[in-house]
Amino acid sequence: MLIPTRGIVINTVKYGDTSLIARIYTEKLGMQSYIINGVRKGKARTQAAMLQPLSLLEMVVYHRNQKNIQRTKEIKFAYTFQSIPFKITKSTVALFMTEVLHKTIKEEEANVPLFEFLFHNIQWLDQESTKVRNFPLSFLLQLSQWLGFRPQANFHQRKNTYFDMREGCFCRERPPHSFFVDMPLSRKLALLIEADVVSSQEVATSRLEREELLQVLLNYYRLHSENFKEIKSIAILKEVFE
């Protein structure tokens, strides 16, 4: 069956001398793996540049149920990047995002609202010309909503000042375990929870606060997302954002 769909490249692995297997999150079929032959030849019909992390594609694919690896008929850009491949900060954020998505999205079924969220956030990252320092934090918080465990926005500076990572909410009393955040970091987290991708960039955060909040959110994902293991790109992300 031939199906036209948009797709977001998550990662690729080499297959043979000239081919790749690409993991692509599609609008109509969810997460799928595609073998793309001859992509590493000089005159390849599909260029390797089209399969970089987070590339936004228009595709026509062959789909057969019960097959682990599908094939493509046509691939072209749905949107051409202006800055992500050329700016180290943005390309590092893109690498971080693909690693998070690879570990959290497994479903081989359509989720159009989630796809639209990812598609538009990737475009925003590419087009934003000034601040992206809080983007990894904003992305993790917004993605958690689609994954079903977004933190509650119930912070109160006199009543609920502890963020309980296990419960996903702010509470009055210090939790009886180590997975919590206290003031003033919990207040910054609360501001980011309530912000969208644009306004989150205006939340004042120091380098140390961003590192601490990033670690908090990754621990939060480990508590609420099955088999969410170490993010290898985190060290590069921290270094670049210094």
Give a description of the structure.
The structure is a single chain. The chain has helices at 88-104, 112-127, 135-147, 185-194, 207-224, 234-240, and strands at 2-15, 19-26, 30-36, 56-62, 70-79, 162-164, 169-171, 180-181. It folds into 2 domains: 2-79, OB fold (Dihydrolipoamide Acetyltransferase, E2P); 130-240, no CATH class. It has a 5-stranded mixed barrel. Strands 7-6-8 form a 3-stranded antiparallel beta sheet, with no helix packed on it. α1 (88-104) runs antiparallel to α6. It contains 6 helices and 8 strands; from the N terminus they run βββββαααβββααα. β2 and β3 (30-36) form a beta hairpin. The protein is α+β, with helices and mostly antiparallel strands and 242 residues long. Helices cover 33% and strands 22% of the residues. The model has no long low-confidence stretch (mean pLDDT 92).
Tell me the radius of gyration. Answer: 19 Å
Kindly state the mean pLDDT as a whole number?
92
Strand percent estimate: 15-25%
* Structural domain count: 2
- Secondary structure class reads alpha+beta
Largest sheet: 5 strands, mixed, barrel
Sheet with the most strands: spatial strand order:
1-2-3-5-4
The rough form would be described as elongated
* Topology pattern, helix = H, strand = E: EEEEEHHHEEEHHH
Question: Helicity, in percent?
Answer: 25-40%
Strand tally, please?
8
Distance between the termini: 49 Å
Residue runs with pLDDT of under 50 for 5 or more positions: none
Number of helices: 6
